[in-house]
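haha ok so turns out i had the wrong file open the whole time. this is the CORRECT one, sorry everyone. sequence first:
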Amino acid sequence: MPLGLVFKEMGQELPTTHLSDPPQIFRQLKLAHFFFNWIAKKADQVDAKYPNFENRPLPSKH
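then structure:
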């Protein structure tokens, strides 16, 4: 299950850029560590909500 989908289902905003604010990232990591079990439970709920979801790699551009 892609984490982006889990966070979207949790109501989190998805990133709009690849640039990050280091202090914000450290705060998010602390929260993720603290709420890991809750996030894992939410991931299971999202997985059950999308039973036919397939996480396939992007096609290669050869």
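The radius of gyration is 14 Å.
again sry for the mixup
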